[in-house]
Structure formats: structure tokens, C-alpha cells
From TrEMBL, chain A:
Name of protein: Trafficking protein particle complex subunit 6B
Gene Ontology process terms (BP): endoplasmic reticulum to Golgi vesicle-mediated transport
Organism annotation: Castanea mollissima
A single cellular component GO annotation: trans-Golgi network
Domain of life per record: Eukaryota
UniProtKB/TrEMBL annotation, chain B:
Pfam families noted in UniProt: Sedlin_N
Coiled coil: none
Assembly description: Part of the multisubunit transport protein particle (TRAPP) complex.
Protein name (Swiss-Prot/TrEMBL): Trafficking protein particle complex subunit
Gene3D superfamilies listed in its UniProt record: 3.30.450.70
InterPro entries registered for this protein in UniProt: Longin-like_dom_sf, Sedlin, TRAPPC, TRAPPC2L
Superkingdom to which the source organism belongs: Eukaryota
TrEMBL record, chain C:
Keyword Transport: yes
Region (Disordered): 491-525
Membrane spanning stretches: none
Name the record gives this protein: Trafficking protein particle complex II-specific subunit 130 homolog
TRAPPC10/Trs130 C-terminal domain location: 1151-1231
Record keywords, A-Z: Golgi apparatus, Transport
Domain TRAPPC10/Trs130 N-terminal intervals: 16-316
Major subcellular location class: Golgi
PANTHER family (alphabetical): EPILEPSY HOLOPROSENCEPHALY CANDIDATE 1/TMEM1, TRAFFICKING PROTEIN PARTICLE COMPLEX SUBUNIT 10
Localization (cell): Golgi apparatus
An individual GO BP term: early endosome to Golgi transport
Length: 174, 143, 1266
């Protein structure tokens, strides 16, 4: 089953999906579009976790599963591991990817010098941020799908305060 | 030879169950598979039992009966694979190998975007693949 | 050495405790015996276990035996070494002595003699009989004891202790015990050492032919037994385990075929718990141990120790695996063992084990406990299976429930394969007949609800065939037959799946065939094959021979007994499983119990158990298994008249996978449901059919309605019923997604509905809803008395596009009701003016704002001065924006021309019925334009204006209004209002009408012959091209046309074309009419009329256009001519001036508000008039200064007489002070001479029409209010 597909193809597929859901199917309903994109990610995560956990012993606790996401799962997806994992040991984990591949080509100027400048043109900034976050529902869904398939129901959100670094916040439902 | 193979979902619901007997005792095999879930539960819930094979996907022999041997395999995603065979001397390696290939086939089947997770597996390719795996069972421990 | 075995065992059985020898030197034992034995058993002893670690043992039992006792005497040294374990472990030497000499001479040598044998662990107890009061004696005793100690005790070991009979010290007994313990410990260690050495020696040669297991066994067991006596059970157990291990690996090693055993009467009853069931001597012959007995013996020893260790759980677990492995061993020997020996043994073994462990088990940790119960369950069910099998063999098979669990269990363990099937005893014909009857009476278990199922197999293949084939084959003795019959050898499971034979099995089969020759004779076996009944009888007899246990046999004596036992076993298994992890096993077995209850009419219990089973299967979605149990449950409920339960069961049956039942079966279920529904149910039960009837909105966008609109909602309903089903009523609830307070609305289906199997489309009337978006809620309905409800959205339907995200899918709104908004827009097609007084098309653009105008009706009401040309049709056509309008126009014109309106659906002629116009359907959704022929009436002639006095005509008098009211909407509930909050229903459109021209005139030139050129300027007022075909002027009195014609300009001008909003002029040459005053008096025509005959060519879409022809318009060529009349006022010019009034120029400084200025006029008499003497005082002139008092303040006399000589050329200046009041261009004051006819006054130079007044200078102190 060694069939492969080029990264650029995947990237453009992602952007295409996002744009078609945001601009066509659910043009003026961003929340609906978000849900749908997240749902697609969920299923993808479900299936990927099914594949990537083959040939490995079962995880004994949540942390192991999260570590699996950070290490093997992430490197399968992005050829790199999560750069930083934080947790409060009460079911919340923060996975930070310092250069999240799917945002690498996002045309939001994250340079700090226009960070202050961004105050006086909030609309543009917001629009850009919204577009970016739209692209983040997919990976969020993937993570959630993978974890819940591993028996860890959780909620996943993404934080892009400092691009292109992106941190995913996983809250495990008790 | 293998009498029956089954995939059981994480809610212990049958996802795929195929018996390879001419006789119409499929129900019987359903029962065997279903009850073997008890053993799986026991292995998983009972820490003492799963001492060395802690968290290993291959659960080994579930039922040590004389005519049927029931083997189990539990994935990370709580999906169970059950194998019922009538062979009296089964090499552990063969069973592990079987499960590995079976698992791979399953993963490919559920990776089909048109497969609804948690629903029965209806893919024909999957069925064919499984039957080939079953046929080749025990013939070679490699592969 | 084997011959010691018997002795060994007698010893072993006789003695089970340590022995302590008492060397009573001076007959003290009788005195101290009681007190010594009072110490037994030792509360707490510390010994060394096999690994030389000290362990404490409780209540160590021991026995004091005098050395003179027969038991300790006369032993051969060999025996001693062999049965060392029974030798004393300590030797207590009892002495007393009052005299030193006696001690030195007699006692000491004797003691020396006693203790010289260092084999023994010994110590001396010195008993002093001295009375405490007799201190002489006590002193002596002390002395002697001191000597004794000196003699026998050593530094490293204290071997003496002293007992005062009369006053024993408190610590004596402790001392004694410790000494005894010390001795025992040492002895034990030494002996353990000894045995171990021996054993090692033996086991080194284990694999040599000289190897003798018997010796090994004796040594091993001696050691084990010694440990056991010393309460070192752990070690004992380990010894036995090693022994078993060694046995198992050596027993089959030696080539020669051993006697297996198990052929004696009573062997069928497992002896795995009582070691003494058989003397070892029977087990062993020439050092070969019979496996059958010996393994049981070993296990019994182990279990005994385990019980002593309070490890009943381990007994159970070891026991279970022992039974399994042992029954395998039995299977290998089956051909030599009695018929079904194996089954019987397993049954008894299980029961024995169950009873023993259950009684012994004390509560352990929870996980252990769970597992213990599981083991019990396993034992029970194993026992149960074997029991059922035997029952089957004796012909109770018909009574066995053919359930999956039984089928599976029976097939998971091999069936008996005796070398020869038993034969019918000669005198059993009567029994055969009985069985025959039983077989004939056997009715195939009919499934409930008329479900036909092939019963699951219990037996391997047909028992008949097998039994006979086996016999035949054996009689013929041919191997081939054997092999193709192999499946039955291989496994009883009847799954003839074993096509490839694993080599080991081959060997087995052949070996069996070889050994077949041992028992049984074949003479009688070559005869007609047995009938089934005969087989039963034969089996029964054979079993009776096999089973020695009477009450086990009783269970096969009759059906009742059998069922009693069967229930007992099943219950046992189920209950134990319920306490373990294996819930499923338990529940499933409950189902078996239920089957029996059902058979005995205990439906209540049966139903309860079946409920549990169904819940289990349904919960985990094992439909195939569920389909097996559910009918039974349904049957129970039916019998119990539990209608609710029965209905739901039927529904569940119907909602199972289609493949699981035949169509006619499913139809039967449905008919059951219907029958109940229409039968009299005392309490109508609500039934949940979510699994059977599902519903969903139709794919596609939701139905969109406007506020207050009713509609029809069509939903898809999936019916899982196999056949059409009639719903007496059906209703769906709508739930508002946003405003929860909206609650749910129920939509009722008006009539009964017939649901086809599968997909149905149902349309429901939808009353007006509040704004918001709605989703489907619950489907409820009624079949007969049966109220059902379904909560589930369509999953039964085809997976719609994103069904794979069903768990994520937001419930799709099915209905959207919009907030109030403008639904249609009515505007006037054109803003430019139309021709007044002519029938004109007024265009009204009707633009629906994505809302259908189906059946809309327009009420038209014309305002004052406006009337609709009722006589003419109203035209309606689809409206396209201006760019294409022309083309569209042309199209519709063309359509008109051919008179084929039908082809062009977007043009239609409508009639006005008492002010109402009904819209055609094609106009429902397209923007259309409505052309209404209308005429604006205005009486009164258009007035022309002269250059002198331009008259402004206001736009207002050309304005007319049309009131419109559009009634539309699904039920004409929508009434068009311009903005919905606008109170009135009506919208009024303003339409502007006007004359074609605005006329103004001026005198272009005045020739000296008195001819005047009158220029008439025509300003086109309309957005259309006007063509003047003719124009003539009816002059007022005093004017005549110069040319003696009708006063038409040269016709060469015409037709004169005036493009929109441009102007044209016509010249008329006229001159004054010389007429005398008297006929002037009768002045008829005060003003002259301009007549213009013109045509108009315009487009109604842009503005004014040819008037609507009331009758159908003729050919376009014949343009109808229109007449336009306008009145003009001409002034006569001054002819013979006698006075000239000149306005003297104003001061150069100009005028300023508030600045006095004197206006001056010069009056000059041009000629005197002698002929008229009317004026007697014609030397003075009346003057009058008129001025607008708003603009001017006049100082001085406005009116007065000035004298002016009648002489020609006399002149006078009239000046008047006046002050301008307002700045700007104002008309200056005018000087008038009322007495003089205007015609005699020439204004020369003429005064200005307007003068400029500057605003006041700031410095001016004028007009500061005082």
C-alpha cells in the first residue's frame, strides 16, 4: 500500500476544501463551515490513528496517547514532531508546533513590527486571522478524531497568537 | 484450519464476522466469538491477568478447548479481532502473523472514506483479502 | 525397592506428626507425662524450610513416645534410612538424682551411653523431687544438676534443663520448648539434607534405563511428607509439583506401552481429591505407575496441601486445567476405556472439585474472587456439557435446547469415539420399543411466530451413520474407511471443516486403529446396521456399565431427573459466571434456564431471563443471535398477555436485519402488530418505532416561507415494515432551532396514510409559522388503538452526501420562515411627462422580491382628473431593464402585429374588472410591467407667454395620482404596502402629464410699413419627437395677417420636427388692423389662438407617446393628428405718441438700501392735439407713481397733477424721492399717466425693468430700530 501523494497536493487540497466550504457551501455561515471542516478532520484523524497505531502496544494512560500524537502521529503527518508539550496534569495538554506546515504558506504577516500597526487596521487583521483559523479546524478535527478513537474524548482548539507557531489545546473530557 | 474470523468494534459490536464452514453453524460461531469477548474484557480489566503481555495487542489463546482454539487481538482503538480455528497444534507465530495481516486489511478497509466508522464492514475487497489471508494461514509464518 | 511401597504407605497413613522420643532413665515419665503432653501441640515453632530460611509454623503437632515403646524399636537400618521421616526428631532424657556419688557412678556412664549416638538430637531434663522446705535436699539437687551441666552442656549448646516438680520455675517450659524446637530443627535440616542428596543422585540418572521412578517417588514423597508433618506445606507442595513434573516427562518416555489404568469398577468417579482412594500398590506394578490413578493421586496430595494452605482458589484453577489435560489423556486411551468413561469422569471430577473448593473458599481479594467464580462457572459448564452429551447418547437429545450456546459448547469438546460402539443387549427389545416411541413422539421444536429454522446441530454428524460406519469399518478393518471417516475421529464438532489432517492426528488415528483389537469382539458386528433407537438403548446399557455413581446414573434414568440435574448444573454455571468477569456467559446460560422454564410453563421467569439475553445481544448489536432469542421472548410475552412487551418485541423483530428472517415471517410479525393494534387493548400503549419508521426532510434546501404564509411541508418517511401499512393518523412536530420558547408545533396529516415498504414522501399542511428556522422533531401516529412515536431521523435511508459525518451532522433545518420584509415593489415605469388630455399608457413595474405573486390581484384606483380607458385592454409583459427594453418592445410589438400572443407567454392582454386586475401566472416570479391606458383630463386652454410677461406654470397642475393595491400571497394574505410598516394598504403612484408644447411669443421685428413679425416659440415638453404638420393663428381683434391667407406660415416649413426638449419657432407676419373706434367697442376676441396640428412619435417606455387608439390601432402609417391649441395675448404697439415719458438716469453711485434717491421722469409733449377738446384743462397732466410698497418707500406725492403747457415741445420733470427697502434686483417705481391713452405714450427712453439695489452700508446709522 505504498501509494503516496505530494505534499503540495495535500496542501492545496486542504486550502481548496476550506475555501469551498467557507465560500461556497456555507458562504455566510462560518460556524457551520467550521463544524463541517472539523468533522472531516475528525474522520481523517479516526482513520489515521487506526493506521498509525498498528503494530504498537496499547497505551496505558492518556499521557502515552498524547505523546504518541506528538511524536509518531505528528511525524507521520508533518515529518516533524510537536516541538513543545505542556500539561496541567488535569486533562489539559498544549501541543505546540513552532512551524506548523499548513500555516507556513499562510499569507498573514506575523512580523511584530506590524503587530502594533495591526491595531489601526483591525478588520484586515481579523479577516486574515479568521481565514487562518478556518484552516485550523481541520488539524483540530484530526487530533480530536485520533484521540477519541484511542478512547479519549476531548475538545481541541488551536491558538495562532504567534504565527507560524501554532499550539493546539487538548482538553480531555472527564 | 480457520473456522471463523471476526472484527468487533470498540463497543463490542460485530463489525465483520465470517465463518468458513460449509455447515450452517454460523450462529454457533457467532456465539463463540461473542462469548470470547468476556475473556478479552477479563484480560483488559484484570491487571493481574495481563502480567507479561501487558498492553500487547496480541491477547493469545482465549479458549483452551479441545476442538476449537479461540485467539484474540485487541488494537489500540479497542477493536478486537477474533480467530477461531480447529487446528490442534497452532504456532503462535502463525497466529500473530495472521492477526498482523488481518489488522492491516482492516485498517485499509476503514480508511475508505465511504466507510462509516462504527458500521459493519461491507467492502468486498476486504472480504476477499481476508479469505486469502485465511487460506494462507499457517502455510508460512513470514509475510 | 518397590516392595517397600506398601510399607511406606502404611507408615505414611499411620503417622502424620513428628515424634519426640523420651528416654525415661529414672522412671519419671508417668509423673511428668501429663504436663509434657499438656504442651502439645506447640503453639508456635520456628523451623527452617527447604531453602534454610526460618519460618514459623503454628500448632505443630507432635507426640512423645518412650524409647521403650514398640513403635520405636526393632527397625532395620535400611528402613530407618528409607523411612527416616518417622524417626524421632528429638530425644528428651529424663533423669533425677539425689546423690553425687550415685550420679558419678551410675547415672553419668548411662547417660553417656545414651547420648553417644549423635544421630539423635537430645537433651537432658533433670527432675528434682526435692521438697522446697527440705533445703538440704534442694541443695543437693542443685549440686547434682550443676555437675550434670558441667558434664553434658557445652559452650555452644545448652543441653540441660531442670524441673522442680514441687515448684517449677516459670521459664522452665519455654526452655523446654525451645530445646525441643532446636532439636527438631536440627534433625529436620539434617534429614532434608539427606533426602535431597538422595534425590539428586537419582535424578541425575533420570534419563538412563536404570532409572527407577519408584525410588524417586518414595524419596520425593518421603521428603514431602516430612515437610507436611513439620507443617512446611509450601515445601511439601513444591516437592509434589516436582514429582508430578518428573512423572509427566518420564512416564511416556520409556518405550514400552504401559498399563493406563482406569478399568476398575468405580474408576469412573474421579478420585482427584482423595489420595487414599486406592492403595499405591495397586497403582504400581514393577515400578511403572498407572497414569490414570497416579496423576489423580498426585493432584489429590497437592490439593490437600493447598487446602491446608487455605488456597482453595488455586485448587480450583489447578483442578480445572488438570481436568482438561487429564481428559485429553483419557481421550487418547478412549478406545481401551469403558464407553464414555471420559465424560463420566469429567462430570464427577468437576462436581467433586466444585463442592470441595466452594466449601473451602474464604473470601479473597476481589479480582481473585471474580476469577474464582469464573473457574467455578467453567467447571459447572464443562460438567454441564459432558452431561448433556451423555443425555444425548441415551436419547434425551430431543429435549436439549438447540441453542447456539449448546451447539457451540457441545462442539467445542470432542465427542466420544469408542473403538466399538456398544451393541444392543439381546434382551432389550422392549426398551428399544420405548425409545422408538420416544423418537416418534419427538416433534420438531417449532419456533414461535411461525419461524422456520433449520435446528442447530448438537451431534457431530448423524449419530446413526457414525455408529454403524465405525463398526463396519472396524469389522472390515480397512484403514481407508477409517481416514475418510476421520472428521469424526478428529472432532465431534460436525463442522466437517477438517480436510487437512495434522500429522499428529494421523498418528493418533492409526495408533487407535491398531489398538482397536484389544477389547471388544467383532463377531456380532457384521450384521444389519443398528437403528437409532437401538443405538440409544445400547448406549444406555453401556453407560450403566460405566457409571458406578448411583445418583449420577439416576439422572439418566428419566427425563425429570435429567432435567433436574441439567437445571442444577446450568444454574450453577450461570450464577458463578454472574459473579465473575464473564457476564456474557452468565446471561447466555440464563437463556438456557429460561428455555426450560418456558417448557414447564413458567413463563414469567422465562420472560425475565429472555429479557436479559435480548438486552445483552441488542446492546452490543449481535443481531443474528438476537434473532434467535427474541421470538422466544415474544412468545412468552404473548402468553403472559404483556401487550406492550409483545408489541415492542415484534417491532424489534421487524427492525432486525432484513436477511435474518424470511419475508413471510416478517409479514407475520407485522400482522401480529396490526392484530394487536386493532384489537381491544385495555390500556393503549405508546410504542416506540424509532428503529422501524424513520423520517427526514427532503434533500435540498429547506422550504422557505414568509412570515404568516401557510405552506405544505413534504418529508421522507422510511418504513421498515415488510408490507404496506396503514397509519390512521400521522403527525410530525416542528422544533424551532433559535427561539426555544417557540416550543414545538405539531403538523397533522389530514388523512390516513399507507406507508409502502421503504421510501415514502408525505406532504403535510403547514399552518403559518413564526419567523425562525425549524427542524423536525418527533413523528407520532396511530395504528388502531396503538399510539406510536419515532424519534430517529432517517438513517434507514440512503447515505446522503455527508452521511459519513452522521455523528457530527447538525440537524438540517427543514423550514425557514423569514422575518417580515418587502415582498414586491411597484414603481412607475417612466418619470417623464405624458400627454395631457390624451389616452396614454401608464407603465407600472411590478417586481416581486423573490416571492411568488401567484394569483395576485391589483386594485387600481385613479385619482381626480384621471380616468382609465375602460374600453381598452390592459397590457402586461415581462420587464427587462432599460438596456433591452427597446428590443423587448419591438418583440412585443411584433407579437402584437401577428396577433399571436399565445406564442409569447410573456405578453398578455388583461381586462380590468371593476378596478381589479388579475395577474397571469407567468408573472409570478418575473418582474413584469403593466400598461394601463389612462387619460388625464384638464379643461382650460394652455396659455402662451410673451417675452414681456413670462408666466411660470407650476409642475403641480400636470400631476395626477394612481392608487394601487396588490393582494397576493399563498392565500391572498399578503397585501402589498410600500414599506410593510406603512399604515395604508394603498400605494399611490404619481404620474406627470403635460401639454406637448410650451408656447411663448415675441415680436421679432417691426417693419416701417407696419408689418410685425410675430415669432412663436414652441418648447417641446415631452420626451418624444413631435412633428408639426400644420399651424395657424387665429388673431385677436386689431390684428390681421398681412397675407390675405388664413394666416398660415409658408407651408414649405412643414412638417416641422421637434426633437425632445428642444424648441422651435414659427414666424407669423401680421399687421395692425385699421379700424374705427366704434367697432372696436364690440371687442369679441380678447386673445388670439394658436392652433397646431401635430403628430407625436414616442415610446411609452420612455415617455409621451401616440395616444392609445381606443379601437384597435390602424396601420402604423396613418399617424393620427393631434391638435394643440394655445392662447396668446398680443399688445398693440404705440402709434401716434403725443407724450413721451423718459426715465432719467439714476445717480451713478447706484442704489443702496436705506439711501434716499430721487427718481425722475421727463414728460415731453410731442404734439398738441387741437382736435380733441375733451380735456378742458389740458394744460395739466395727472400722473401716478406706482411702486411695490414692499420694495420701495415713496416720499412725496404719488399722485397729482402737474401743469404742462399744451404747446408742442413743452416738457416737465417729475421727480420723487424714494428709498429702496430691499437689496437685489427690484422693479423700479413706474410713472403712469392715467388720463392719457397708452397708445399715445411712447416710453423714450424706456425705463429699466429692474434696477439693482445694493445692501445697506455698514456705517449707515439708518434703520437702527429706536
Amino acid at each position: 500500500m505504498g501509494r503516496e501523494v505530494s505534499e503540495s497536493c495535500v496542501d492545496s487540497l486542504l486550502t481548496e476544501m476550506v475555501s469551498s466550504y467557507c465560500d461556497r457551501f456555507y458562504a455566510n455561515k462560518p460556524d457551520l463551515a467550521a463544524r463541517r471542516i472539523e468533522a472531516i478532520g475528525f474522520q481523517v484523524g479516526l482513520q489515521l490513528s487506526e493506521r498509525y497505531t498498528m503494530e504498537r502496544p496499547r497505551f496505558s494512560d492518556h499521557l502515552e496517547a498524547i505523546k504518541f500524537i506528538c511524536k509518531d502521529f505528528w511525524s507521520e503527518l508533518f515529518k516533524k514532531q510537536i516541538d513543545n508539550l505542556k500539561t496541567n496534569h488535569r486533562g489539559t495538554f498544549v501541543l505546540q508546533d513552532n512551524r506548523f506546515r499548513w500555516l507556513a504558506r499562510m499569507s498573514v504577516d506575523p512580523s511584530p513590527e506590524n503587530g502594533d500597526l495591526s491595531q489601526d487596521n483591525p478588520p484586515a487583521e481579523n479577516k486574515a486571522a479568521q481565514a487562518t483559523s478556518m484552516h485550523l479546524y481541520f488539524p483540530c478535527g484530526i487530533i480530536r478524531g485520533a484521540l477519541s478513537n484511542l478512547g479519549i474524548p476531548c475538545a481541541v482548539t488551536a491558538d495562532i497568537s504567534n504565527l507560524p507557531a501554532c499550539s493546539f489545546v487538548v482538553r480531555i473530557k472527564a | 484450519m480457520i473456522v471463523c474470523v471476526a472484527v468487533v468494534g470498540h463497543q463490542n459490536n460485530p463489525l465483520y464476522i465470517q465463518s468458513f464452514t460449509e455447515a450452517d453453524d454460523a450462529l454457533k460461531l457467532h456465539h463463540i466469538v461473542h462469548c470470547s469477548l468476556d475473556v478479552v474484557d477479563e484480560r483488559v480489566n484484570n491487571p493481574k491477568k495481563s502480567g507479561p503481555t501487558l498492553n500487547e495487542t496480541f491477547l493469545g489463546l482465549l479458549y483452551p478447548t479441545e476442538n476449537y482454539k479461540v485467539y484474540g487481538y485487541l488494537t489500540n482503538t479497542k477493536v478486537k479481532f477474533i480467530l477461531v480455528t480447529t487446528d490442534l497444534d497452532v504456532r503462535d507465530a502463525d497466529v500473530r502473523n495472521f492477526f498482523r495481516r488481518f489488522h492491516a486489511a482492516y485498517v485499509d478497509a476503514v480508511s475508505n472514506p465511504f466507510h462509516v466508522p462504527g458500521k459493519k464492514i461491507t467492502s468486498r475487497t476486504f472480504a476477499e483479502r481476508v479469505s486469502t489471508i485465511v487460506k494462507s494461514f499457517g502455510s508460512s509464518s513470514a509475510g | 525397592m518397590a516392595n517397600f511401597l506398601a510399607q511406606f504407605h502404611t507408615i505414611k497413613n499411620s503417622s502424620d506428626h513428628l515424634v519426640i522420643a523420651v528416654e525415661d532413665v529414672s522412671d519419671l515419665w508417668p509423673i511428668v507425662k501429663s504436663e509434657f503432653e499438656g504442651r502439645l501441640p506447640f503453639k508456635r515453632a520456628s523451623l527452617n524450610n527447604k531453602t534454610r530460611n526460618s519460618v514459623f509454623v503454628e500448632n505443630l503437632t507432635a507426640e512423645f513416645i518412650l524409647t521403650t515403646d514398640s513403635r520405636l524399636r526393632s527397625r532395620f537400618p535400611l528402613e530407618q534410612s528409607l523411612f527416616w521421616f518417622r524417626e524421632p526428631y528429638a530425644t528428651v532424657v529424663l533423669v533425677t538424682c539425689e546423690d553425687l556419688d550415685e550420679f558419678r557412678t551410675i547415672l553419668k556412664p548411662r547417660l553417656k551411653l545414651i547420648v553417644q549416638n549423635d544421630e539423635r538430637e537430645w537433651f537432658i531434663v533433670f527432675v528434682s523431687k526435692a521438697h522446697p522446705n527440705n533445703d538440704q535436699a534442694t541443695k543437693l539437687a542443685k549440686k547434682v544438676y550443676a555437675k550434670l551441666e558441667v558434664e553434658f552442656s557445652s559452650k555452644k549448646r545448652e543441653r540441660c534443663c531442670k524441673l522442680d516438680i514441687h515448684s517449677p520455675e516459670a521459664n522452665f517450659w519455654e526452655d523446654l520448648e525451645s530445646k525441643i524446637m532446636e532439636s527438631i530443627r536440627n534433625t529436620l535440616d539434617r534429614r532434608v539434607q539427606f533426602y535431597e542428596d538422595e534425590i539428586r543422585k537419582l535424578s541425575e540418572q533420570r534419563l538412563m534405563p536404570v532409572w527407577n521412578f519408584c525410588n524417586f517417588f518414595i524419596l520425593k514423597e518421603s521428603l514431602a511428607f516430612m515437610f507436611e508433618m513439620a507443617h512446611l506445606f509450601e515445601d511439601a507442595l513444591r516437592e509434589y509439583d516436582e514429582l508430578e513434573l518428573c512423572y509427566l516427562e518420564t512416564v511416556n518416555m520409556t518405550g514400552k506401552l504401559r498399563d493406563f489404568g482406569g478399568l476398575d469398577r468405580g474408576d469412573d468417579q474421579a478420585a482427584l481429591l482423595n489420595p487414599g482412594s486406592k492403595p499405591l500398590t495397586q497403582i504400581v506394578q514393577d515400578d511403572s505407575f498407572r497414569e490414570f490413578e497416579f496423576r489423580q493421586y498426585l493432584f489429590s496430595c497437592q490439593s490437600k496441601l493447598l487446602f491446608k494452605l487455605k488456597r482453595a482458589f488455586e485448587v480450583a484453577s489447578r483442578g480445572y486445567s488438570f481436568i482438561i489435560s487429564f481428559s485429553k489423556a483419557l481421550a487418547l486411551r478412549e478406545n481401551i476405556l469403558p464407553f464414555c468413561m471420559r465424560e463420566v469422569w469429567v462430570i464427577t471430577a468437576c462436581l467433586a472439585l466444585i463442592n470441595a473448593t466452594a466449601s473451602q473458599y474464604k473470601d479473597g481479594p476481589p479480582d481473585i474472587e471474580k476469577e474464582f467464580y469464573r473457574l467455578q462457572g467453567d467447571l459447572y459448564s464443562l460438567c454441564r456439557v459432558k452431561f448433556m452429551r451423555l443425555a444425548y447418547l441415551v436419547g434425551f437429545g430431543t429435549e436439549i435446547e438447540r441453542s447456539p450456546v449448546n451447539s457451540a459448547l457441545l462442539s467445542m469438546l470432542p465427542w466420544p469415539k469408542p473403538a466399538v460402539w456398544p451393541l444392543v443387549p439381546p434382551d432389550a427389545s422392549s426398551e428399544v420399543l420405548v425409545k422408538e416411541k420416544m423418537i416418534l413422539q419427538e416433534t420438531p421444536r417449532v419456533k414461535h411466530l411461525g419461524i422456520q429454522r433449520k435446528p442447530l446441530p448438537l451431534e457431530p454428524s448423524l449419530l446413526l451413520r457414525e455408529a454403524n460406519r465405525r463398526r463396519a469399518s472396524l469389522s472390515a478393518g480397512n484403514m481407508v474407511e477409517m481416514f475418510e471417516g476421520r472428521p469424526i475421529f478428529n472432532d465431534g464438532s460436525g463442522s466437517d471443516a477438517s480436510t487437512k489432517i495434522s500429522p499428529s492426528q494421523k498418528v493418533r488415528a492409526s495408533s487407535m486403529s491398531r489398538t482397536n483389537s484389544s477389547p471388544g469382539s467383532f463377531e456380532s458386528s457384521i450384521d444389519r446396521p443398528m437403528r437409532l433407537a437401538e443405538i440409544y438403548v445400547a448406549a444406555e446399557h453401556a453407560l450403566q456399565r460405566t457409571i458406578s455413581n448411583t445418583d449420577l446414573w439416576k439422572s439418566f434414568s428419566s427425563l425429570e431427573e435429567y432435567e433436574k440435574k441439567y437445571l442444577e448444573l446450568t444454574k450453577g454455571a450461570a450464577d458463578n459466571y454472574h459473579h465473575s468477569w464473564w457476564k456474557r456467559h452468565g446471561v447466555v446460560l440464563d437463556g438456557e434456564i429460561a428455555a426450560v422454564c418456558f417448557k414447564h410453563g413458567n413463563f414469567d421467569l422465562a420472560a425475565k431471563s429472555y429479557e436479559k439475553v435480548c438486552a445483552l445481544y441488542a446492546g452490543e448489536g449481535w443481531q443474528d443471535l438476537l434473532a434467535e432469542v427474541l421470538p422466544s421472548l415474544a412468545e412468552c410475552q404473548k402468553i403472559l398477555n404483556d401487550q406492550a412487551g409483545y408489541l415492542s418485541s415484534c417491532v424489534r423483530l421487524l427492525s432486525l436485519d432484513k436477511g435474518l428472517f424470511l419475508t413471510k415471517e416478517r409479514e407475520a410479525f407485522q400482522s401480529e402488530v396490526l392484530r394487536l393494534a386493532h384489537s381491544e387493548m385495555k390500556d393503549p400503549v405508546p410504542l416506540d418505532v424509532s428503529s422501524l419508521i424513520t423520517f427526514s426532510g427532503n434533500p435540498g434546501p429547506p422550504l422557505e416561507l414568509c412570515d404568516g404564509d401557510p405552506g405544505t411541508l413534504s418529508v421522507t418517511v422510511w418504513s421498515g415494515f415488510p408490507d404496506d401499512i396503514t397509519l390512521d393518523s400521522l403527525s410530525l412536530t416542528l422544533m424551532a432551532t433559535y427561539n426555544g420558547d417557540e416550543g414545538v408545533k405539531a403538523l397533522r396529516c389530514p388523512a390516513a396514510i399507507v406507508l409502502k415498504p421503504g421510501r415514502n414522501i408525505i406532504t403535510l399542511p403547514l399552518p403559518p409559522q413564526k419567523p425562525g428556522s425549524y427542524v423536525l422533531g418527533v413523528l407520532t401516529g396511530q395504528i388502531g388503538h396503538l399510539r406510536f412515536r419515532s424519534h430517529s431521523f432517517s438513517k434507514g435511508g440512503p447515505a446522503d452526501s455527508d452521511d459519513f459525518m452522521i455523528y457530527e451532522k447538525p440537524t438540517r433545518p427543514i423550514l425557514k420562515v423569514f422575518k417580515p420584509r418587502a415582498l414586491v415593489d411597484l414603481t412607475a415605469a417612466i418619470s417623464s411627462a405624458l400627454l395631457i388630455n390624451e389616452p396614454q399608457w401608464v407603465g407600472i413595474i411590478v417586481r416581486p422580491i423573490n416571492y411568488s405573486l401567484k394569483g395576485a390581484i391589483l386594485h387600481v384606483d385613479t385619482g381626480p382628473g384621471l380616468k382609465i380607458e375602460e374600453s381598452h385592454v390592459i397590457e402586461m409583459q415581462s420587464y427587462v431593464d432599460v438596456s433591452q427594453s427597446a428590443a423587448d418592445m419591438a418583440k412585443s410589438d411584433a407579437a402584437q402585429k401577428e396577433g399571436s400572443l399565445a406564442v409569447d407567454k410573456n405578453f398578455e392582454q388583461l381586462r380590468l374588472h371593476d378596478g381589479r386586475i388579475e395577474f397571469p401566472n407567468w408573472a409570478n416570479n418575473v418582474t413584469s410591467i403593466l400598461w394601463i391606458p389612462i387619460r388625464a383630463i384638464s379643461d382650460g386652454l394652455a396659455r402662451g407667454s410673451s417675452s414681456v410677461s413670462p408666466l411660470r406654470q407650476s409642475i403641480v397642475d400636470g400631476m395626477r395620482t394612481i392608487a394601487l393595491k396588490l393582494v397576493f400571497g399563498v392565500s391572498h394574505n399578503q397585501i402589498f404596502e410600500r414599506h410593510c410598516h406603512f399604515p395604508s394598504f394603498f400605494q399611490t403612484l404619481a404620474v406627470h402629464f403635460t401639454d406637448p408644447f410650451q408656447v411663448s411669443t415675441r415680436i421679432a421685428d417691426k417693419c416701417n410699413d407696419g408689418t410685425l413679425l410675430l415669432q412663436v416659440i414652441l418648447q417641446s415638453e415631452v420626451k418624444a419627437t413631435l412633428t408639426i404638420n400644420d399651424a395657424w393663428l387665429d388673431l385677436q381683434d386689431g390684428f390681421v395677417h398681412t397675407t390675405k391667407g388664413d394666416g398660415r406660415p409658408t407651408s414649405g416649413f412643414f412638417p416641422l420636427v421637434i426633437s425632445p426638449h428642444s424648441r422651435a419657432a414659427i414666424l407669423f407676419s401680421i399687421c395692425l388692423e385699421m379700424s374705427n373706434a366704434e367697432d372696436e367697442a364690440k371687442a369679441l376676441q380678447p386673445e388670439s389662438i394658436l392652433n397646431i396640428n401635430y403628430g407625436i412619435s414616442g415610446d411609452r417606455t420612455t415617455g409621451a407617446h401616440p395616444p392609445v387608439a381606443v379601437e384597435s390601432p390602424g396601420p402604423k402609417g396613418a399617424r393620427q393628428d393631434l391638435i394643440f391649441r394655445s392662447s396668446l395675448v398680443l399688445q398693440r404697439p404705440v402709434l401716434d405718441p403725443c407724450l413721451a415719458v423718459g426715465f432719467l438716469p439714476l445717480p451713478s453711485g447706484g442704489l443702496r438700501v436705506g439711501q434716499l434717491v430721487s427718481m425722475e421722469w421727463r414728460i415731453e409733449r410731442l404734439k398738441d392735439f387741437e382736435e380733441n377738446e375733451i380735456s378742458k384743462h389740458n394744460n395739466e397732466v395727472l400722473y401716478e407713481v406706482g411702486a411695490n410698497s414692499d420694495n420701495w418707500m415713496l416720499a412725496g406725492r404719488k399722485r397729482g397733477h402737474v401743469s404742462l403747457s399744451t404747446k408742442q415741445g413743452s416738457r416737465i420733470v417729475i421727480s420723487i424721492l424714494c428709498m429702496p427697502l430691499v437689496a437685489g434686483y427690484v422693479r423700479p417705481p413706474q410713472l403712469g399717466l392715467p388720463d392719457v391713452d397708452e397708445t399715445n405714450i411712447s416710453c423714450n427712453p424706456a425705463g429699466p425693468h429692474l434696477v439693482c439695489v445694493l445692501p445697506p452700508a455698514l456705517s449707515s446709522s439708518f434703520c437702527i430700530p429706536a
